[in-house]
């Protein structure tokens, strides 16, 4: 049994207000405009009744929550809950395919990585629902054939949108990283680009374009680190801080040999090694001069 109705309560309140109006109007016949006070009194009765109705409704919601929840569940059960339910009907399956293709065309037109990722998720949901639907026994043979054909088409869409999302996101994030000033911001943003590519590589590990993109991003990270430490080394050498310059060059050499072992990295490593050797000679000569007072005095006399 559901919650009690309050329509009878309001009907009774309206009847009482009407009776009060006519009684007061009859009693005040000798007064000027007797309908005014009678109408006010009847209005007060209706306002009090309406306020009381609100209080009653709140109490009913607290006392009968089960009926409200059951109503919501009954409506939810009446609607399709997933792609699995939709795909069991040929007409609904065809409509779902048309919707996916329409959204796919729109995503390609706008070239938005977010839209491509949303389409990938929609395709994934479709394929999961199709797999469950094909495992059931309540699909007609012609519907089963149509569903398998749809699965092949949606798998192509799924791959297309995941790869497009990964490449587009990586391109945007790498461009953003190039605009950063601080090294840690460059590396952090570039690593986010790598995460997007790695997400796609987990699904399609043999996709060559993804591997090429990942290599380009890693190359950018390495170049940024090496350039950062080389710049610090050059500044230190210019100021005569040779030991500090050597340490910075060694940091650059560490990242270079660790992350770029190929021939291009070896050539850059040789140049940095030569700079370290030259700085080491300067540092040794500076230490000899500082440790020999005679050389200091001799230099001082020459200057005078």
How many E strands? Answer: 0
**H/E element order:** HHHHHHHHHHHH
Please tell me the total number of domains: 3
What does the average pLDDT come to?
Answer: 79
Percentage beta strand: under 5%
Largest sheet, if any? Answer: none
The low-confidence runs, each spanning 5 or more residues with pLDDT under 50, are 62-81
Number of helices: 12
Q: Residue share in helices?
A: over 70%
Alpha-carbon distance between the termini? 114 Å
- The computed structural class is mainly alpha
Q: What does the radius of gyration come to?
A: 40 Å
User: Which overall shape is indicated by the principal axes computed on the Cα atoms?
Assistant: elongated
Topology:
Layout: H1 7-27, H2 35-63, H3 65-78, H4 83-87, H5 90-110, H6 113-135, H7 141-179, H8 183-203, H9 208-238, H10 242-259, H11 263-291, H12 293-303
Helix pairs in contact: 1-2, 5-6, 5-7, 6-7, 7-8, 7-9, 8-9, 9-10, 10-11
Question: Can you offer a commentary on this structure?
Answer:
The protein is mainly alpha-helical. The chain folds into three domains: 7-76; 83-205; 225-303, Methane Monooxygenase Hydroxylase, Chain G, domain 1 (Up-down Bundle), CATH 1.20.58. The protein contains twelve helices and no strands. The protein has helices at residues 7-27, 35-63, 65-78, 83-87, 90-110, 113-135, 141-179, 183-203, 208-238, 242-259, 263-291, 293-303.
